[in-house]
Amino acid sequence: MSLVGKAVAISKETMSVARQSVLIGIAICLVLMLIASFGVIPAIIGALFQEVVDTVTILWALRARIDKTEVTSISSGNGKKHPAKA
Fold it and tell me: Which parts of the chain span the membrane according to its record (predicted)?
């Protein structure tokens, strides 16, 4: 695959992960805000949950850093890096 093709594929995957991270963060925050608005949880617990949401969103976004070729070669069982990486 050409370098331009690889760059386009990487950018598409990165944007997909970024979109997923944002949507997951928003969805969890909305649920927590609805719960908090009815007084089910105290404000301090809501603040702690917000930190958990931030952490989950950041960890989800870190998926974009995973080298897909290396993961594929590891999961295929040969334990060697992809020839393009050599």
Answer: 21-49
Q: Looking only at Cα atoms, what is the longest distance across the chain?
A: 57
What domain range includes position 71? 3-85
Which of 83, 35, 26 lies closest to 60, judged by CA? 26
Domain total of the chain: 1
Q: What is the pLDDT of residues 26-43, one digit of tens each?
A: 998 899 889 888 989 888
pTM here is 0.62
- The answer to whether the beta carbons of residues 70 and 82 sit under 8 Å apart is yes
Cα separation, 80 vs 34, whole angstroms: 49
- Determine the Cα–Cα distance for residues 12 and 20; give it in Å rounded to an integer: 12
Residue 8, phi-psi category: left (phi > 0), alpha (psi -120 to 50), beta (remainder): alpha
